[in-house]
Fold this sequence. Notes:
Layout: E1 2-5, E2 8-20, E3 26-36, E4 44-52, H1 63-66
Antiparallel strand pairs: 1-2, 2-3, 3-4
Amino acid sequence: MAEMDGLNVLVLYKAEVPRRRLDGKIGRYELIHRWLSAPDPCCVLGSETTLWMKKEIDFGRSLFDQFNLF
């Protein structure tokens, strides 16, 4: 699942190997937030990844409505 809003891109996917988060829980989904320089041509200025559990994600909603990363 991927969405773009302005110069921000969110990509959510199921990780091949689940990893332990800092809170001790196992994250099976990775959410990548990338921010871009400009629409055309664009470069990735930065990127961060967070881990999420399936019960924390509503697959019927927009990623930008669910995750407050800014």
